[in-house]
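Supplementary Text 2. Reproducibility record for the structural model of the 498-residue chain.

All settings were left at their defaults, and a single model was retained for analysis rather than an ensemble. We include the record here because the model underlies the residue-level annotations in Supplementary Table 4.
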Amino acid sequence: MTIGQRPRAIVIAAFLAAVTLAVPGVGAAAPLSVPVTDRNPAVLGAAWQPQPLGAQDAPQHPYLAANNGSNIHLNAYQTDASDFPGPLGRHPNVTSAVLGGESGTITFDSHGRIVTMVITPVQSFLEVIDPASLNVMSSYAFPASLDRFNPDGTVNVGGGGYFYLDNEDRAIIPTLDGKIHAISVHPDGSSSLATTVDVRQHLPADKDVQSTLPDWNGRIWFTTTSGTVGVITDFFGAQPRVATIALGERVTKSFAADSDGSMSIVSDKAQYRFVADDTGAPVVDWRTEYPNDGVIKPGKLSAGAGSTPTLMDDQWVSTTDNADPVNVVVYRRGPASEGGGKEVCRVPVFGKGKSASFQSLTWADGQLLVENNYGYQGIRSTLGGVSTVPGLTAIRFDKATERCSVAWTNTEAGTPSAIPRLSLANGLVYTVSKPHVPGGPDDWYLTALDWRTGRIVYSLRYGSSPLMNNNYTAVTLAPDGAAFIGVLGGLVKITDNP
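Retained model, structure tokens:
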């Protein structure tokens, strides 16, 4: 959820300041007031008849909230495949709420309520939201800080850009000051601080904790942008124990938790498999470097892997590298003693000089989906009707031969920065697209594609404003078939009408 270089960040801050004046706080939701143009039709395409796919690939993690809504990539394996249905394009309805900032990671607690971080350039809030009315039930404010601005002018997505909801409705949230907080969400929708663990003394460089996730034994792992990997044992106990290792490499993506207790982490140089030793300290089991030309592509925040590691079944892990063009790369993920760390296949996507992927891969039914984000460098990249280089490519993975091949490519949809979301219940994959019409309106669409063929089934315009830019967030599906999109101004909800 980057906001680009400092001049772009100032532009966004102005937008958010304007929106913040109308923030409803706890209580009734105020809709985003955005102009709707008539230059593009509201809906392109036709309604879809569900074509379900196979069962969920990711097992339920014992220390995470239920699959489909525990973190930005839905589950411990980071598959971005949901058991929930999504809108079918039948007489769709769009509603929205001003939240005073960008609704980033969206999770669901055990009562079905939305738990999300709302991020602005200077402050973050954990908000509990009624998914039906979009009313804010409670808001927990973190201290204001200008540390969200990096020295190079970019806005840091750590400190809440990634967080997870655990199996007891506690949001585990890192902040930019080297602390990890647990915020309890109570049955009545209120929230309160459960505990905080301060890890600053264990961080040799920056204090920016990028992401957190538990392993299958309940230890909480964390990474920092400067490349520290840490493990906290007995996080909720009287004396939490912290152990770390410094990689000397940047880590800008989240990571995946395997059911065997290991963690898959990718740096700007290599893919790793980590395990915890008998004392709870992180240990590198294997490290495999990937192709990298050292260039930060337009559409990426670092000269490294663009996607959070995605675990495929019980044997493989996949990510994208930083070659030109970008490759989708698959490795064996088991222990090094059993051949783990071996690259088994790679496929280049999108073409030289126009290829950059900074979003997680989607995995289901023997297929990976990769999205092109080339050209997205903050909101100015999509102002004035322009968009980014289009491209969505599906990669078939043959489990028997461990070979990869292109299944289909769609070059119609320009998808600047969304995390695609697959519905296993209906066979559609959802993303956010924006047409390239220089000098035209800034129209934003929910676009649904057939997972099997890549054909665009329908595109629904949900708004026409820079505030409707999703800016690196995901399409999140709900149990009732609604789709939620976090945008710069707040939250958008899309449903079918009978």
